[in-house]
Design a protein that fits this description.
98 residues; mainly alpha; 0% strand
Length: 98
């Protein structure tokens, strides 16, 4: 009981000491800027197919679609630890030949 009270007290004290009053001069207020972030999407495997022991091509299909949409002369940066998916390899080879 005392140990948990001490833990709560320590967390409360750390929280209170980390708060500080903001300055009144607002020096950095005029230097703020907006940053746009483009996140293409999040894709997951189809759990019903995986649960049934089948392959779920959702991620590989989307990856192949993105590779095929790469314009001529563009670079593709890909970081995958070993793969042997023939459709993906064919898409990368076709993109390299464009």
């Amino acid at each position: 009981m005392i140990r948990s009270f001490n833990g709560v007290l320590i967390v409360l004290l750390l929280f209170l000491t980390s708060c500080k009053k903001t300055s009144d001069n607002n020096e950095g207020a005029s230097q703020s800027s907006l940053v746009a972030v483009n996140i293409p999407g999040v894709y997951f495997t189809d759990l019903a197919k995986v649960g049934a022991g089948q392959a779920s091509p959702v991620i590989m299909d989307k990856l192949r679609e993105m590779i095929n949409a790469t314009p001529v002369g563009a670079h593709i940066y890909l970081s995958i630890f070993g793969f042997d998916h023939t459709g993906l390899i064919a898409a990368l080879n076709a993109a390299a030949l464009r």
